[in-house]
Amino acid sequence: MDDLPTPAQLAQNLVDLLDVEEIDTDLYRGIRGNDGFGRVFGGQVIAQALQAAQRSTDAPRAAHSLHAYFMRPGAEDHPILYRVVRDFDGKSFSTRRVIATQRGVPILNLACSLQMPEGGLTHQDAMPDVPPPEGLTNDRDIRLAMIDRIPDRFRANFLRPRMVEIRPVSPRSWLDPVKHAPFQNSWFRVVAPIPDDPALHRAVLAYASDMSLLGTATLPHGVNWLTHKLQSASLDHSVWLHEDFRADDWLLYACDSPWAGHARGFNRGKIFTRDGRLVASVAQEGLIRLRE
Hints:
The protein is an alpha+beta fold.
């Protein structure tokens, strides 16, 4: 265990991962992920596409919403190219489309809207009443406690250090799943401080918003990918960014799933700061298909 990266190294890895390179006007390249599992994490593609959209627009315009459709899984063997289309630049809003491709084939389409700073009427939902993160066990320690029961082919995934730490309020049982109401709460943050750039923090939130959410639709059925032949994948993903925040401070992700059917599950998420500010809302529909 001595060769594990430090939290600072993991945080820098995430910053580097989301630092898309401009290789031509409105054309960006995202570096490969390094999880070593072949398939690119969907949150990475969303976050890199958001960064490409943000890089094509001058501050102080800030992204306030994004809507993405996944078409094909990305492969870790190749970088991802992001082509930005500048659909609109008005006095208050700018609209961008981003097409993510690998080896000439689109894997994701993203639409993003950015807005000039502006005041207005305000209200928000209240944050759930949950324990603070300090008294909760992080996801990695939960996984380590059961590692002897995990099949060998899954152990590398279970043991890998994560760039984003998650502390579930009510940890689910991976090995003995039971039927549960379709909601879950968890705290998350980058494992070490990252630079102050607000665009980076928005991209990190977009990255982390693809964690935990899809599995919410499986909770009422007592199934998961480890114990059942469950095929799951994100189909679309939307994020609305309401307020400023820091992704290296604790954020609460409150998820629920109001519906599932036809091999699809619909999930919603609200993201709060520790002081109760609602800073983002998320919606996602995903494939949840049980195979014989």
